[in-house]
Amino acid sequence: MLARELLGTAQVPGGEELRLYSHGRDFMILLDRNELMSTRMRGSEEALAVMSLERLANARAPHLLIGGYGMGFTLRAALKNAPPKTQVTVVELVPEIIEWAKGPMAELTGDAFEDPRFTLRMGDVADAIAERPGRYDAILLDVDNGPDGLVRADNDRIYSNAGLAAARRALTPEGVLAIWSAAPDPRFTKQLERARFAVDAVEVSARYDAQGRGKGPKHTIWFCRPS
């Protein structure tokens, strides 16, 4: 039986320590005993991009803001499915996450960082959201564990009433705010509606088998349009 190998650690600013492990050809990032992400479960992270782009079918040159690089599943799905003139800006808070993408997980990352449509910005995605009204056609948030966060207390401000209002201002009139979560949260759905979004909460399988059938736990993605 293969043992997990610790490849690196990272201190989240204002939060907890993350640990990157390998297990054979798989990778996983853990917070304490919680598995935050894994190469074995990528379905919902890819759906975050694919299903957002489906809702932007009329946008010929959309600008996507992705909050949290993770293992890059959302970024790579966006680059694979987006129109040629798309801009994709990824904001990542933890430098080691990008170092791991270029180092131990370089094969997984592929050539995504060389794609001319891609821009990497280090820092807090809340700052990028607050900068300029009407800038983004889609804001895709895969930050922490969703609204019920584990990693960093400051992430709560993204999902607060003020944070949702800022996201609404940052979107184009037909834009989409998409929020990933490890679990459903009816209270957060109501909070989104109070923030003047039309909300579609979708359950997505965490992984798929060789025939494309959903397997494993279900994750939740809220797709929200200004109403």
UniProtKB/TrEMBL annotation:
Keywords: Polyamine biosynthesis
InterPro entries: SAM-dependent_MTases_sf
Pfam families reported for this sequence: Spermine_synth
Ranges annotated as spanning the membrane: none
Keyword hit for Transferase: no
Keyword Repressor: no
GO annotation, biological process: polyamine biosynthetic process
SUPFAM superfamilies named among the record's database cross-references: S-adenosyl-L-methionine-dependent methyltransferases
Domain of life: Bacteria
Protein name: Spermidine synthase
